Amino acid sequence: MKLSQTFVKTFREVGKDETARNAELLIRAGYISKEMAGVYTYLPLGLRVIENIKNIIREELNSIGCEEIQMTALQSPDPWQKSGRWESEKMDIWFKTDLSAGGQLGLAPTHEEPITNMMKKYISSYKDLPIYAYQFQTKFRNELRAKSGILRTREFLMKDLYSFSADEKSHDEFYEKVSDAYMRIYDRLGLGDCTYKCFASGGAFSKYSHEFQTFLPVGEDTVYYNKDKSIVLNEEVLNDEVLKDLGVKREELEKTTAAEVGNIFTLRYKFSEPIDLTYNDKDGKRNTVFMGSYGIGVSRVMGVIVEKYSDKKGLVWPNEVAPFSAHVIGIGEEGEKIAHELEEGAPNDILIDDRDLRPGQKFADADLIGIPIRIVISDKTLAEGKIEVTDRLTGKTELASIDQAYNKYMTSLLKTEEY
Amino acid sequence: MKLSQTFVKTFREVGKDETARNAELLIRAGYISKEMAGVYTYLPLGLRVIENIKNIIREELNSIGCEEIQMTALQSPDPWQKSGRWESEKMDIWFKTDLSAGGQLGLAPTHEEPITNMMKKYISSYKDLPIYAYQFQTKFRNELRAKSGILRTREFLMKDLYSFSADEKSHDEFYEKVSDAYMRIYDRLGLGDCTYKCFASGGAFSKYSHEFQTFLPVGEDTVYYNKDKSIVLNEEVLNDEVLKDLGVKREELEKTTAAEVGNIFTLRYKFSEPIDLTYNDKDGKRNTVFMGSYGIGVSRVMGVIVEKYSDKKGLVWPNEVAPFSAHVIGIGEEGEKIAHELEEGAPNDILIDDRDLRPGQKFADADLIGIPIRIVISDKTLAEGKIEVTDRLTGKTELASIDQAYNKYMTSLLKTEEY
């Protein structure tokens, strides 16, 4: 893609109302635009990152037999009244609205109730089980404060998966599969080495749930961990009973801050019982469906990646998440010509800065935008048969022969055989 | 995909509250599920159709230089107050909601105002123009009635494109490009031979806008047309002045009903003036940005395709829209074995009915689900070296040798070389 042909615009600074580093950098680098506190629009570069994250999640969930659907934001009260979560005293982040035709609707902050209700049409026999359905869906949460950039917003994209199993045993097997899939997802997102499965409160119906916590100075959660015993637990469950359960002593735990990047819940019959989601087993006996739910905040994960990798110069994207593979800058007549040809051969993988600006300004913007590899093709180095390749993460630059550079960095990028 | 492993379930009938044929068939065939009047969930098959439609639109818009973004549903009143569309008397389909932190928000029924407002940050010079930005975004419209299935809903997926040009001339050139791209889109959607560009009211600022109308008995609009003169106009602009403009007499026009599948508007300065979206031209003079907007209702188009192609037996999908390329049914030991191997070679292209049901029931469901090609592999015909291939649209069945069938229908489906 040619930078001159997008409306990606970089800024030296943003307004004072943006206090979160993730949103500040993403706005400055032209990835997102702030609509209002806690509400952000995704610009072309930002949407590419979101789609990359979605694809990683989609691939890993499909590989364990999950199916993608798309539910609605508008919610009728009925199933929420059955579960007891319709009243704002029970769930204080509802946005509600009035229907012209009469009645009140809510904007879904999550989808346990509507999917449980919907499954009454699709589950009647043990033959219909298990069902694992997920969606990438916009959630609405009427947060009183919104000061964490895209980490916690009033409208955000979430992957939510719901499992419907015949019994606890088959549920537990799937729960472990999701847990493993989540770790593969965080690995591919570049968060694998600092993200841990963490014991958290199970709510009223299960002893524990699990969060996936990325250790991060700006994280909102406090967790305790013991690396030797591979134990991480949320502060909310730090009590004598839990310590005994896990076989660890308080003094063996270290404390740190972390950002939640996902959670998995064993819901048991919490929703299927009040909403009456049942099935007939092999003997014709009526049983209640055993449920689980599993979330990953897609836009939140993007914010965590920004917080983890960014440096003084700007954003730094892991390979699988980056909106482009290489950021190309041509300098001088021959350099610009080759740079353009490169971009034309792989416009979906290469971002070329073809704007009429000084090289220094282009270098600064390349650092800010944070594509993994920067390639500078200048007449000066071309005279020696070399081009300059810089790794955004390490900052390491090497002069490579054109052949070397193509072999090492660009073979996967190039659709044509010209080089 | 194996039918036994999805929660696709077919129904003989749906509740009495569903009066629209498109929704009735889509619910019966397992594509969508009704949340409430005018609000539908997309199940795995339905979401595949939606994604296919989105990809066709995306490819054609990208080919004319458009860029994809993602704006938000939550809207602050400010830009809408400037354009005069915040008050419900001016726009009666608003859903509004209260923010916990104070103030009222709206759920976007369209995005002219917020994108015009946002572009103030990205447009300051003639060098920034043109910008063509589109999104696939969920719109909310508080319709008093919702009786047309997925043709008119309270929450729906829309492709909306907005153009920002320096002047009317460059706008007009782009407007024609979009018009051509739309016709390519309708061709690929299978609606090309019955969809026409139609003169419609331009509102307060332009003489005309254009709608794309698919001639259809259940269409909500009345249009007049003259095929020889290639003129189609909406009833709303059938007056002496317009007839004179178009050089056609009233008696030369025939009347029919049609469903709108897209529209394109020259907005001129309708939004850029009150919201003050301006740019500096080459001489440093301040000008107002010239705008256009261009919509296609994605879920609505899906409904129109259903209305146009479906027959007494069920749905009929055009090739590029169909959730799968082939629906395979194996009968007998060897037939089932080959059917399974086929699906395993191309699980993303082939739907196999591996359920433990009578063949007659599988045939009926295949007709209802409407995949373009049905392939029946039975021991009986295999004994003669043949398999049965049926075209869903024409109903024509032919016995083909396995080699012929693979060459004609399946080479593109098969990822492996086994057959």
Number of strands of chain A: 21
The span between the termini of chain A is 19 Å
Helix fraction of chain A by DSSP (H/I, runs of at least 4):
25-40%
CATH architecture of the largest domain in chain A: 2-Layer Sandwich
**CATH level 4 superfamily of the largest domain in chain A:** Bira Bifunctional Protein, Domain 2
Summed over residues and divided by their number, the pLDDT of chain A gives a mean of: 93
What's the overall geometry of chain A? elongated
Radius of gyration of chain A, Cα only, in angstroms?
Answer: 25 Å
Number of domains of chain A: 2
CATH class of the largest domain in chain A: Alpha Beta
* Largest protein-protein interface: A-B, 57 and 57 residues
Question: Helix- and strand-based class of chain A?
Answer: alpha+beta
The share of residues in extended strands of chain A comes to 25-35%
Number of helices of chain A: 11
- What is the CATH topology descriptor of the largest domain in chain A? BirA Bifunctional Protein, domain 2
Taking the sheet with the most strands of chain A, its summary is: 9 strands, mixed
- Tell me the quaternary state: homodimer
The stretches of 5 or more residues of chain A where confidence is low (pLDDT under 50) are 414-419
